[in-house]
TrEMBL record:
The protein's name: Thioredoxin-like fold domain-containing protein
Signal peptide: 1-26
Pfam families linked: Thioredoxin_2 (PF13098)
Superkingdom of this protein's organism: Bacteria
UniProt lineage: Bacteria, Pseudomonadati, Bdellovibrionota, Bdellovibrionia, Bdellovibrionales
Keyword match Signal: yes
A cellular component annotation (GO) from this entry: periplasmic space
């Protein structure tokens, strides 16, 4: 709870959010979720209802460790982002989170100080506009680039490989170990991993990856055999993962891993399954 309370002292600045089950511990009746939160619900964030204080319904969201707080006006016509204080200056939001957190460990596990980010509504609108008059391969790549993903590798200037992966897929594990010890470790590539789940258990693990602030570290620990690195929480929001799965289904991609990348000549290429020869891919990239 220490980390979560520390960040509460800083006003929320970003608007990255998604839909998730409201807390079962909230005793009062949960009101309908605001439409703007539903609109952003497929981004993979977790949402909890904080309760009603000072006539305002409060909501907390967490995505990739960044948490935000929103309050809905009594008429439901407006949403205020930030912390709620009483007339004496006491942050009411802290009390609400503490009450909720006592029965919801995911808040502490996924929380980290927030940093500015791109407004997802604006990003979605830009993506839709960009998809007009594109070839099928270009449309697929645009959808992949707009999917919910985590970043592996520290070299932001390196060529990017997008990869659909199931946390329990043995071929995904083998591929990751191939890439991790060489191309990723040396900064020759950057991977955008798109977590999916073909079973309920792996969907929950994939959803946890999307919400976690230390996703890369947890993923590597999971690969190394740490069974606690990716907890399975049946109540976690899986909509971000479902959105990734929908992309696979729409393009008839029915197995993992799936790799997509742009070659050095700009050609979009796909590899289904674990590549037999990574040298062929690197020759395309460099």
């Amino acid at each position: 709870m220490k980390n979560f309370f520390r960040l509460l002292l800083v006003p929320a600045l970003v608007c990255v959010m998604g839909l998730s089950p409201v807390s079962a511990q909230t005793a009062e009746k949960t009101p309908p979720m605001p439409e703007v939160l539903k609109e952003l619900g497929t981004r993979g964030a977790q949402i909890r209802y904080l309760g009603r204080e000072k006539g305002l319904d409060g909501w907390a969201t967490i995505l990739q460790g960044q948490e935000q707080y929103f309050y809905v006006t009594p008429d439901g016509e407006a949403i205020i982002m930030g912390l709620l204080f009483d007339k004496s200056g006491h942050p009411v939001t802290i009390d609400q989170v503490a009450k909720l957190q006592s029965g919801d460990t995911a808040l502490d596990a996924l929380a980290t100080p927030a940093t500015p980010a791109v407004d997802p509504l604006q990003a979605i609108q830009e993506e839709l506009r960009a998809q007009q008059n594109l070839s099928p391969s270009q449309r697929l790549m645009k959808e992949v680039e707009a999917s919910n993903m985590i970043t592996l590798g520290k070299n932001a200037d390196a060529p990017v490989i997008y990869a659909f992966m199931d946390p329990q897929c043995p071929h995904c594990h083998a591929l990751m170990n191939d890439l991790r010890k060489d191309l990723l470790a040396t900064g020759q590539i950057q991977m955008k991993m798109i977590p999916v789940g073909l079973r309920d258990e792996t969907k929950a693990q994939a959803a946890y990856l999307l919400a976690a602030p230390d996703a890369e570290d947890r993923w590597y620990k999971h690969l190394d055999g740490d069974t606690k690195a990716l907890p399975v929480d049946p109540a976690i929001n899986k909509q971000g993962v479902e959105r990734n799965l929908l992309i696979m289904q729409n393009w008839k991609l029915d197995a993992t891993p799936i790799l997509l990348y742009r070659s050095k000549t700009g050609e979009i290429k796909m590899v289904r399954g674990r590549p037999r020869d990574l040298a062929e891919i690197t020759a395309d990239l460099f």
